[in-house]
Design goal:
heterodimer; A: 263 residues; alpha/beta; 9-stranded mixed β-sheet; 30% helix; 30% strand; B: 432 residues; 12 helices; 22 strands
């Protein structure tokens, strides 16, 4: 069983601060982390490997600093890590990104066929959830999104639970296929010391555009159908004056306002 | 001498791709850096930077180009119609250029569908066009009249037993074929579990642009293109995304953001039956079982009154009080991520970026400071009542009725007064 996990380095959204005067992001406030959903995908891949044997490869597209998250995955137990990095990738939207990652996965497949591709359900910086289904389409793999549990893998068929708004559905699908996963898919563990040492010494495999034989017209800004026209601060809602007085009075005013609104 | 890159750079890489000399790269801090020995000050990067972070050094500045005019207003507020006669000339008024995918489960319509038709109607009017709706399913005809009454001008139906339970591949096949046949300009889907699953696959297959999770839609009337705006970086900023040279321009739209139109019964609508060849044998994915939560779904998105608590509630006991207040008012309890993370509130009750989006008549915010991730999920509430000791926090500033104080002293009084009022109201009702 060869599992490829697609991962992304993201700014920790919870810690992004905004400059109240210029309405711009203060990037230095946000450390770069492994996208949380991807972390659960890697952990799930390791669990499948433990059960069925095989190999876990992780792949990411990004600048050289993204080696950090690949090393983190190695410390979690991944066997190989690939970084797709090239100046021509910069400015890629989700369509172009899914193309580049697909070309990377195809390159991995040349040496070692892939049975399963895992992605986090979305990245917390963009929240688009588009790249996973895009890769599946390009690889011509069936896609199963929002997977919360792998029930079984048997005789070349995987059975999973897909999370829905009001429950879940159980779906079967032959391998190879692509899953995008919820956090429920796995419990995060701790890296062991030997794995951490291995990760520290691990030399991330870095591929540029020529190695993955990708068409440069399909990537970067030129290969991206969407573009950002402008960025602006969200509209601010202006509230009223604080209600003043003792608790009884304030509550009384509030109750009458609410009842007025509801009648 | 070389171009300056300001701190406002968001590291989008637009300049890297644009630079004909390869002088710009994304540096270790995820912002653009310029190699001064290669840069020739051609200014091409300045033109493409979406946040105007790049500038010429003062010594080289000559004429500052006009920035593009802002396009404020969402599709719900603006009623501009194309004014120039040239714009009117190349319109094809009868063709439905704006399409909506009707989402339903076992022929029960998802509420986002009617919201999308409402938004699409506004976009279509600006394009001098009409709205087409794709209705795929197993005998979905029962939904025609609802779609029609709410603004569908044309409905394309694919009726096939294979489409009974949603699966990406056959749905994608149908949408792609219909788009190829009729070439709409715009295709909207809900940013729901189903819509987001399908949209990514369809856009990849059609090799077109897709903007996810939009909260504002508008039309650049002059260029006749969709302006799709969405929150980015956890809602801290909004980005307007264009898809210039590819059709259809696709967008998934967050539920509870757009407004459905009031139904008009018997309005004209054309229904077109499409037959698309599908076979169960060719679909490798099988839905084996659908499991519904036994617990009643938390209907935050439909609630008229929401009583929400945040980190400031500190303990479980506080949420018991909120529950009591909600019961009296016939409301539903929700909360911020602070509340769910502390374990005081179930995760399915979370409101905000990673939870549900709500738009109640009345929203109580107890001990919620108003982090942007929470605010994006509740800012469309009609009346906001905030109770917080910090009068300067974001929630207090945006609230219709802010009250400075501790929730624990105010809630018991609210419970007392509301139960009195409600009781007397019920008595009045029983006398009638």
């Amino acid at each position: 069983m060869h599992i490829v996990v697609c991962i992304k380095q993201v700014p920790d959204a919870a810690q992004v601060k905004i400059d109240p005067i210029t309405n711009t992001l203060d990037r230095s406030s946000a450390p770069a982390i492994l996208n949380p959903y991807d972390e659960h995908a890697v952990e799930a891949a390791i669990a499948i490997k433990k059960q069925f044997g095989g190999k876990v490869s992780v792949i990411s597209m990004g600048p050289m600093m993204a080696k950090d998250i690949i090393k983190k995955c190695i410390s979690m137990g991944a066997d190989a890590g690939y970084l797709l990095s090239d100046r021509s990738f910069a400015g890629s939207d989700t369509l172009a990104t899914s193309y580049i990652l697909t070309m990377g996965i195809k390159k991995i497949m040349e040496a070692d066929p892939v049975d399963l591709v895992l992605c986090g359900k979305q990245a917390v910086d963009g929240d688009t959830a588009q790249v996973g289904p895009g890769i599946a389409r390009r690889l011509n793999f069936p896609v199963l999104t929002y997977v919360q549990k792998v029930e079984s893998i048997e005789a070349g068929t995987i059975i999973v639970q897909r999370k829905m708004d009001n429950g879940y559905e159980i779906v079967s699908c032959p391998l190879p296929c692509l899953l995008t996963v919820e956090k429920d898919i796995s419990e995060l563990g701790y890296a062991s010391l030997p794995e951490m040492i291995r990760a520290a010494k691990y030399d991330v495999i870095t591929w540029g555009v020529n190695i993955i034989a990708a068409d440069t017209t399909k990537m970067g800004l030129k290969g991206s159908p969407t573009s950002v026209r402008k960025i602006f601060a969200p509209e601010e809602r202006v509230g009223g004056e604080p209600l003043e007085g003792d608790i009884k009075t304030v509550t009384g005013i509030l109750v009458s306002k609410v009842m007025e609104k509801l009648s | 001498m070389t171009v300056n890159i300001a701190q406002t750079c968001i590291g989008c890489g637009a300049c890297v791709a644009e630079c004909p000399y390869g002088a710009i790269d994304i540096g270790p801090e995820s912002t653009a850096i310029v190699n001064p020995s290669v840069c020739v000050n051609c200014e091409q990067c300045i033109a493409v930077c979406p946040v105007q972070a790049i500038s010429l050094p003062p010594e080289l500045r000559h004429i500052v180009k006009d920035l593009e005019p802002d396009h404020h207003g969402s599709c719900n507020s603006s009623t501009d119609l194309p004014a120039s006669s040239e714009a009117m000339a190349d319109m094809t008024p009868t063709r439905d250029l704006v399409w909506v995918l009707a989402e339903h489960e076992n022929n029960v319509l998802a509420s986002v569908t009617l919201e999308l038709i409402g938004a699409a109607t506004d976009l279509a009017r600006k394009l001098g066009s009409t709205v087409g709706v794709l209705l795929l399913g197993d005998n979905p005809e029962c939904l025609i009249s609802t779609l029609q009454d709410h603004g569908a001008d044309k409905i394309y139906i694919v009726n096939h037993h294979v489409l009974a339970n949603y699966r990406t591949e056959p749905f994608m096949q149908c949408v792609v074929k219909l788009v190829q046949k009729y070439s709409p300009d715009i295709l909207l889907m809900g940013a729901t579990t189903l819509g987001r699953d399908l949209a990514g696959a369809v856009a990849t297959d059609l090799q077109t642009g897709l903007t996810a999770d939009c909260t504002q839609l508008d039309i650049d009337i002059e260029k006749r293109i969709l302006l799709a705006s969405r929150p980015a970086f956890g809602g801290n900023i909004m980005a307007t995304i264009l898809c210039l040279d590819h059709k259809p321009q696709m967008a998934s739209v967050r539920p509870r953001v757009m407004q459905a139109l009031a139904p008009v019964s018997g309005r004209y609508c054309e229904v077109i039956y499409e037959s698309i060849e599908l076979s169960e044998e060719s679909i490798s994915k099988k839905v084996l079982q659908i499991v519904r939560d036994n617990i009643e779904r938390v209907k935050l998105d439909e609630a008229k009154i929401i009583v929400a608590g945040g980190r400031g509630m500190r303990e479980q006991n506080g949420f018991e009080m909120l529950k009591e207040l909600a019961n009296i008012l016939g409301g539903v309890v929700g909360g911020s991520r602070g509340a769910t993370e502390s374990g005081c509130l179930e995760i399915k009750r979370q409101i905000g970026q990673t939870g549900q989006t709500v738009a109640p008549t009345i929203y109580f915010a107890f001990g919620i400071s108003g982090a942007i991730q929470h605010v994006v999920g509740m800012q469309r509430s009609e009346v906001i009542i905030a109770i917080n000791p910090d009068r300067n926090c974001a929630m207090m500033k945006m609230a219709t009725y802010p009250i400075v104080g501790d929730a624990y002293t105010i809630i018991p009084e609210l419970i007392k007064q509301f139960s009195q009022v409600m009781a007397s109201r019920q008595q009045e009702g029983s006398h009638e």
